[in-house]
Amino acid sequence: MASRPALERRLHAALDASPSRIPVVLGDFRTGRTQLLYRIRERLGRTQCQHIDLERAATTPERFYQAVTKASPFRVPPRAEPASAREAFDATLAFLDQSRTGGGNEPATFLLDEFLELRTFESFPGLRTALRELLKTLATSPNRFVLTTRYVSRAHRLLRDATSRFEVIHVPPLSSAEVRDLMLSIDGGQAMLRDERGADSLARAVYTLSDGRVGYAQAIGEALSRMVHAEGVGDAVSALTQLLSPDGRLAASCASCYELRLHRARGYGALKAILEILAQEEPLTLTEVAQRLRRTPGSTKDYLSWLEDVDLIVSQRKRYSFSDPLLRVWVRLYCRPSCPSDEEVAREVQSYALARLPHPEPAMVVAGGGELGDDDRKSWGIIEID
User: Fold this and answer.
1) Contacts from 359-364 at CB under 8 Å and sequence distance 24+?
2) Which CATH superfamily is domain 5-170 in?
3) Which of 47, 83, 147, 168 has its Cα between 20 and 30 A from that of 26?
């Protein structure tokens, strides 16, 4: 798990305040929100807090109530089986509000991962305001809570009128030093980063290519470690190329992110088209997107707002671009009639790297932890492409 000391201190300070505050942790895919909750759980102890992944567990209110109470480390007072969705949801709110630890005297701590998934219940009779009812219950409860979600825009809208007990915390990108610490924790990382000068250069390359995102940095670091172990040499760009190949880990991860967000939005086909347009060129204005889409500015503005609603794109000075630069690379590679070749993947990743890295050739690492010297480097640079 990636260590984020400053962020973790802020979360624990909120929980330890009197009265406790409720941190709402906002971050995109692969920014380490769930890892933060796991670290809190390990620090507090599994008998003192309960982690609940709503994205996986929120099915019907009745089954959700059964699932969270059955898995809870807290004593659940006996009550009649809920006879309806409304009763089950009320029982869930009572459970979150009234659970205690330490023989019934101490407040319980709940870590609610992807809490916005509770809107699943709003399609059931009598539960049209389920999310707002949840926030109202948490705001007055003596228990302690940490909430997370990947949907930043939706969370801001929901919390607009919430009480001051809720504290919005955005997960910042990893720093270069934190990326280095993360790489050191990877199996083989100590040997890979043994050389001080080469370690700094390598960590900076991984930091830049990963956009400071925990999931990307960890995947690149692990792929790089495997390359060095198997081949004796490797570099961050080649590791990223492997990860974005058709059977690569990040190719699958980006596909999941792409589909999940689009299915949470409206206008599926048009939104895909806009993402393909921005993958070819960004940033673009509303007028430029509308012209390429061959739709009116009015309808295009709606489409763009729906993409912003699920945080696939961002708007700065009325110009739109991807919020995740690696997802943009994935769209360029995979939103086409056929799967890309190895050469096409290598070409796209190299183009991405050259635009972001300060030098045309990032640090390479050899088995044993050193960095390749000038005499040892191959003349073809990062990747050979015919």
Assistant:
1) 362/201, 362/202, 362/205, 362/209, 362/235, 362/236, 362/237, 363/198, 363/201, 363/202, 363/204, 363/205, 363/235, 363/236, 364/233, 364/234, 364/235
2) P-loop containing nucleotide triphosphate hydrolases (3.40.50.300)
3) 47
